[in-house]
Amino acid sequence: MSENDLLKIKLQLLQFQTDEQQAQLAKVQALSDLRQLVGRESVPADFDVAGAFDYAAVTLQLADLERLAGENRPDLRAAKQAVTAAQSQHALADANGAQDLTVSGNYARVGGLGSNGTSYASVGVSIPLAIFDRNQGEIERTRIAVTQAEQQQAEVSGQVMTDVKDAWEALQRSDRIVRAYRSGFLEISQKSRDISEYAYQRGATSLFDFLDAERQYRATQIGYRQALADYLTAVEQVRQSVGTRALQ
């Protein structure tokens, strides 16, 4: 091996080591930020994430995600409950506008027992005549409250569906990129590197060609892992948009 080839290998090694150190720093910082988000007292200082860093296809369609969001998003459920509460208040105000009917009865006996006495019985019915006050103000106020609650629900529903649509589109884009890598490009980069290494070891190609194939292989692997990270992030955004982690 010539001195020039040795220097090229050392420079390539330096690049590998630099990339490794940057990746380790990024992981430490990400874990620190995550601990801050969940609460520093909730997890130990040496905690680590678990689970496979791998691709798993989401089979649900947009209509399925919209249905899940309608069932699980807490802000949409709260808006629906606000409409129900406003409608109840309006029904109560409307009922209070009607006057209550009062029925009374009276029984009395005058005189002695038997045929010498006289019995009296009376029944009375009364109802207030609400000429001016029929609870109109409260009825109108609650009617407006119902309208406001319905409009708020429509606004929240629209925002929820927009969140689902945006998350779905981001997921589809990331999914296409990951599938493209997995469709054969990973195997191609691996095979190209192996062929170049085999040829270099037998003197059939130059060190420059071998290092170039190595760089291409590393670039492909890094690109795939970044695409995979984007995909997993998109999956989490979909889960957040529908309000549940169970995408079934």
Descriptive report:
With 248 residues, this protein is mainly alpha-helical. The chain contains five helices and two strands; from the N terminus they run H-H-H-E-E-H-H. Strand 1 (102-110) and strand 2 form a beta hairpin.
Provide tags for this entry:
69% helix, 248 residues, two-stranded antiparallel ribbon, 2 domains, mainly alpha
Quaternary state of this entry equals single chain
The SSE string, one letter per element, is HHHEEHH
Query: Residue-averaged pLDDT, rounded?
Result: 86
Give the count of helical stretches. 5
**How many structural units, i.e. domains?**
2
What's the story with the biggest beta sheet?
2 strands, antiparallel
General form: rod-shaped
Strand arrangement in the largest pleated sheet: 1-2
Rounded to the nearest angstrom, the distance between the terminal CA atoms is 58 Å
Residues in helix, %: 55-70%
Question: What is the structural class?
Answer: mainly alpha
Query: Unreliable stretches, pLDDT < 50, 5 or more residues?
Result: none
Instruction: Work out the strand percent.
Output: 5-15%
